[in-house]
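@channel sequence for tomorrow's demo:
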Amino acid sequence: SRLKKQSRLIQSKMDFLNFSWIDYTLFVLMFCLSLAVGMYYGCCSQQQNTTEEYLLGGKKMKIFPVAMSLVASTLSGLSLLSLPAEIYLHGTLYMLIAFSPILMAFSVNYIYLPVFWKLQVTTIFEYLEIRFDRSLRTIASSLFTLTNLIYLPVVIYAPSLAFNQVTGFNLHVIAVVMSLICIFYTTIGGLKAVVWTDALQLSVTLCTLGCVLIMGTISVGGLGFIWEKAEISDRIEFFNFNPDPTIRNTFWTVLIGTTFMWISFVGTNPATAQRFLAVSSLRDARKVLVIFVVLTVITKLICCFSGLIIYARYYDCDPLSIGQVEKVDQILPYYVLDVATKVPGLSGLFVAGLFSTALSTLSTYLNSLSGIVYNDFIKSFLPSKIAEDKASTFMKIITAVIGLMSVGMIFVVEKLGTLIELIGTLTGATVGPILGAFTMGMLFPFANTKGTLTGVLSSLSFMTIVVVKYQINVWNGSIKYPSKPLHTYGCNETLFNENQTISSVGGNTSDEVFLLFRISVHYYILVGVILSLIIGLSVSWFTKSKETSLVDPDTLNPLVHRFLSESNLRTRSKLLQKELQIHRISDINKNNKEEMNSLKTDNDKLLDK
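structure tokens (generated this afternoon):
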């Protein structure tokens, strides 16, 4: 009878929080606009037949929409759901993620962006082939493709979880429907459709977040009340300088770890670097970076502060402890519906914005993956004329196939751990080694193919073992992270007044787990980069020769040019000239051969006649 009573109480509360017809109308309207944008660029706008037009928008994209598209892909449903939940459970230390993009901007602006812009590559993995050889490009492309086949279902799952919370709709059904909408406009519209839908969706999301933030602050009694409740529960914590790498959140783990996460995401990620190459000049690309950093800092702070507002509202009656939400990642949509009931349509816009940011991430990566799969795995097997004339057709097919595969993977994602830790375990094993390879190539002229390949593979193997062991220990309960206290003494229902104790989610990590497998997930990318650099540079140093020491200056960062010898530059210049002559002769021979075949065919027709 107690369980039945609890079920009735929870169900009545959820009925109170459900969508109205206005919410549904605005939700549907938002996605109809996204479809309209995709159809316009796919059917009514200028045709996108070439790789450059489909992937880079003809390199004529506007600065502000591109910057907004970048922000939308970072402000995914994962951020909107997991950041408030993180602050709600573990306090404000993770709020430092809002400031690490500033450190990232200096690295990207001075190290990676000038090189990519100089080479004018279609996908940034082409750099690895130019600097080293084809094998490294293939490895990087394979890792990126494999990682995102796992990551994209997480992106879809997060907002579907929220929609399930507020409407009761089947999680899997809504995930499939929304994904198909995204796949459609991404497939037919290319980068132009992706950028403009992202800009539209982000505008709505930011406006809705701002309204919810203001309403939430007023509803709980103002900023002073929010800060007071957070301090009482020991949630205000910024300067925990404990150097222990196994602690989940400290000043060092969050600031350093997330800085390397941002560098890998913005500097050496094909999906984001593609945006910087879609504008008309390096100066415009740098403006995109500045706008991106400013908007990202603002949006991350809003998301994090929302966690404190939510705690101030439920400090004495935690919805997670009493079963009104099944997972902590559902706490934000639950809160939004709770405070926004007096404003018709606000809940619908919020959930639409939540889905929109998730779909912007999905569309970004689908567009990028189509280019990588086509250029790195398919194009070389096609005749040159067909490869260029039919490029957009092939990439549209690839986009649709990868999108459908991601939809199928949703059923696996929900069986794994919390969203932030899941993202860390997915990206930590692969992103770090690849970031190390780019860094070696741009900053160390003596780095060669053998050394870089050894470094990447060694780092990848090591980090895969660490990630797998970590996830196993999470599954069996050996690794647990205690949360800040959660209370239920203020719940109004008679049932919950029986239990007025303070609850705490999780426990302590067992000391029996080996130190290496207890390291904070925030450090995974950093460790992968360090291992890749140490091993790669060591092997390169002991295997260097005169040939491997000749490096194309365009593949090095401009700051490194001063350290190159003049003989190196002259010799490399001569080699490049000879290679160019060889390619020209090869093209001439190829054209001559085609002309000879054409003449022979005409001659045969004349003889037959």
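heads up for whoever presents: Strands lie at 486-487, 502-503.
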